[in-house]
Amino acid sequence: MDWQAIWLSIRLAASTTAILVALGLPVAYWLTYSRRRWKFLVEALVALPLVLPPTVLGFYVLLAIGPRSPLGAVYSKLTGGMLPFSFQGLLLASVLYSFPFTVQPVAAAFAGVDRKLLEASWCLGVSRAATFRRVIVPLSLPGIATGAILSFAHTLGEFGVVLMVGGNIAGVTRTVSISIYDSVQALDYGAASATSLFLLCVSFAVLALTYALQRRIWAVWPIN
Amino acid sequence: MADQLTCQCRKRLSRGFEVEAELWIPLDHAPVAVLFGPSGSGKTTLLRMLAGLERPDAGSIVFREISWFDSGRGIHLPTQERRAGFLFQDYALFPHLTVAENVGYAAPGETAHKLLETFGLAELATSKPRALSGGEQQRVALARALAAEPALLLLDEPLSALDAPTRVRTRYELRRMLLAGGVPSIVVTHDRMEAVALGDWMAVIVDGRIRQTGPVQEVFRRPADLQVAESLGVENVLAAEIVGRDAGLLVLQVGEARIQCVDSEETGTVFACIRAEDVAITRQMDQVSSARNRLAGRVRAVIPEGALARVELDCGFPLVALVTAQSAAELALHEGETVSAIVKATSVHLAAHSSLQ
Fold first, then answer.
1. Domain A3-33+49-214, CATH
2. pTM of the model
3. Contact between chains at A123 and B85 (C-beta distance less than 8 A)
4. Strands B32-36 and B185-189
């Protein structure tokens, strides 16, 4: 089993999830409560990674972060490094790729919070930002957890985007799925099946956890 | 007259219904004002506009000389700055917080703690709202609103979430709590018993418009027009013609019958409003006293209503009387019999016809 690749994938998935939760909550709030007419355009944009082939997404990300693009130029000026074929570049691509997996469950959870509770909070003199923190987020914890877990699992298994943006550098961008692909190419079926089995078990555990959260089967969950 | 609330607001709702309300409430004379109207009359919308939860299309709201809303000057004070406590129909308690955390939500500390004691919630302090009864939830909601030290309390059908026996018991308790809270309150209700039990002042809203405002007793005694009378549940609203004036009494022609009532400035066609409780029934047909109206009527139906019986008479026009079940039994009323209905002249109230469009 390629422990180096597994460890890299876990690091990538955890970082991606952390960024997505920080980024996804405000976006989900806006999507849930905004009354702008052009909201549907943003919704479509957020959902795009669900239908786009990972290679297409990876291709555009590669163009966007290349040294000749404005973003890539700014990055190399600031850090001296380059985004393509680096962990940071991979992280950026993963965030974009898993964005809907965080935003959609979180937005659904926000929409499920009774609007009267928000109005009650406003009438008690509490600002919108504080109401978000004190009412919406605590009542949406199962949805937020679902979004985080799905994003983590999705990042753990990504292949196309990694191949396009990160390539295959051991310890830097070689994730689990790339490692499995490599093993098969090298006819090392033993290593491939061990790593595959590991990924299969992790994925199943994560999905089981997600569905359990949605059904709130645990009495200790914060809502109670 | 600084201590008052005035609201002149217009808002078109999505279903084409328009609320156009002119409301005036003297806060010093009226600790509890009732906004009374049938379902769908726009009273909740009006309350939400006062709270700043809905934005009127045009108009102004002035509370104690502070402009809360003024479309002309582009003022729309945010909900948070109006300091108007709002009690939702189902109380909207925060389900993830305990009773103590709910009450202390706006300002945890001494005030919140005292309110827990005052409202008898100290023992429930660590419970979650879902474990409480309806009446307890209401007390938590009220304590939570008062803890924020509001300048005005707005209550949307505060008793409708309770079951019927609790509702009756809670009416007087709610009034006591509102008076003890010392904050002027506006209560929305469609129940006339609640209006009478809770309010000092009332405004009647029908079809999105305020039709009458005044002290509660005054509004019930003299409904301004037919729709107000109907919405207040005055059972007998009879079309009448003023045919004469005599010694401080007006003589009305109602169908074939003549009814006397206390003189007012009305002229021409009016509506005579008689509460069913004010109609007495007797079998003695003879004596005629001057202050009483005696109408011969045929019994059409006797409908038991608990301790009371509702007697429907045909006096040439339909007349409904509400008598105790005991007296209905003593009179042994049967359908088709002719009896006398007696109505005091002071129990007949006129509603003008002119405002009926």
1. 1.10.3720.10
2. 0.77
3. yes
4. parallel
